[in-house]
């Protein structure tokens, strides 16, 4: 059987990298020849989780077709979020928990998607269905992914399946998920030593919304006022990126992981800003707006933006 690469989205988070590792182990147990890779360097939070459970970060690839003919995707399906030459390889498997958009294949494939808080929750279900024992380190990295995506089960995306998976995986991994989870999340909130350019690209995704190219980035912090001291520099970096990459709107969501509140910074045309304000029923003041309780890009940001841009 020919080798296939497994990877998550660009600017990978703990779910993208952790689930790729877990899926590669599962698929190899089932007879496939796979390797988990990444479409970018691991962030601080992910590095903390990888180190905790004894993993080396997957190697980073820029293209896939120079290595393999087929790939498996986790934690994404939209082409603009995937490897640059996704159109030159065959996608044989997808495991995801996001919307399906602009995704087409020439051949039938295995596609598994569910509206849960994290792709690793689906992976946990797949291990159980296949009756494949989950090793301690794999359980740990899957647990880390769920904690990351659900903000320690506090995100509105959290489901009963996520909670059940966390308890099960924490037991296998041998950790107190609340204690470990808070340490891991805090490891990802150190922004002082990073430039604004790096921060707005650290966890960012592009979305095609009714012909508009919309960029949504998110950073997690424990001190929101301190992060907002860099507002002007963030806005400048976002504006420069928009001009360079052709974004019609760039939104940066700065989320306080301790109280689950966010502040949004927005640059773009007057028309796109008006659509943003309609989406959240909130008025921008000097390119800034408070979004209390908004922590999930997938559930609380992209859906209302989609509706507003398509209206």
From TrEMBL:
Gene3D superfamilies: DHHA2 domain, inorganic pyrophosphatase (n-terminal core). It is an enzyme of class 3 (hydrolase). Mn(2+) 2 binds at residues 15, 75, 97, 149. Binds 2 manganese ions per subunit. Its EC number is 3.6.1.1. GO terms for molecular function: inorganic diphosphate phosphatase activity; manganese ion binding. One of its GO terms (cellular component) is cytoplasm. Mn(2+) 1 binds at residues 9, 13, 75. HAMAP family: PPase_C. Belongs to the PPase class C family. PANTHER family: BNIP - RELATED (PTHR12112), MANGANESE-DEPENDENT INORGANIC PYROPHOSPHATASE-RELATED (PTHR12112:SF22). This is Probable manganese-dependent inorganic pyrophosphatase.
């Amino acid at each position: 059987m020919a080798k296939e690469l497994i990877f998550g989205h660009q600017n990978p988070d703990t779910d993208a990298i952790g689930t790729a590792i877990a899926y590669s182990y599962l698929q190899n147990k089932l007879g496939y020849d796979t390797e988990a890779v990444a479409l970018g360097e691991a962030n601080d939070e992910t590095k903390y989780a990888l180190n905790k459970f004894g993993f080396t970060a997957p190697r980073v690839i820029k293209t896939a077709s120079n290595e393999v003919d087929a790939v498996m995707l986790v934690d994404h399906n939209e082409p603009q979020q995937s490897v640059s030459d996704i159109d030159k390889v065959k996608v044989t498997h997808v495991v995801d928990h996001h919307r399906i958009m602009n995704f087409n294949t020439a051949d039938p494939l295995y596609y598994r998607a569910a509206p849960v808080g994290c792709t690793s929750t689906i992976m946990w279900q797949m291990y159980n269905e296949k009756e494949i024992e989950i090793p301690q380190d794999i359980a740990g990295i899957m647990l880390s992914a769920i904690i990351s995506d659900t903000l320690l089960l506090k995100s509105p995306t959290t489901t009963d399946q996520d909670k059940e998976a966390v308890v099960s995986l924490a037991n296998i991994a041998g950790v107190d998920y609340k204690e470990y989870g808070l340490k891991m999340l805090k490891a990802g909130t150190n922004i002082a030593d990073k430039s604004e350019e790096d921060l707005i690209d650290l966890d960012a995704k592009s979305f095609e919304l009714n012909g508009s190219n919309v960029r949504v980035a998110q950073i997690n912090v424990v001190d929101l006022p301190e992060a907002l001291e860099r507002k002007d520099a963030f806005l400048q970096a976002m504006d420069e990126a928009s001009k360079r990459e052709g974004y019609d709107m760039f939104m940066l969501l700065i989320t306080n992981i301790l109280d689950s509140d966010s502040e949004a910074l927005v640059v773009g045309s007057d028309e796109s800003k008006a659509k943003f304000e309609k989406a959240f029923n909130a008025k921008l003041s000097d390119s800034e707006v408070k979004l209390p309780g908004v922590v999930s890009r997938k559930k609380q940001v992209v859906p209302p933006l989609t509706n507003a841009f398509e209206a």
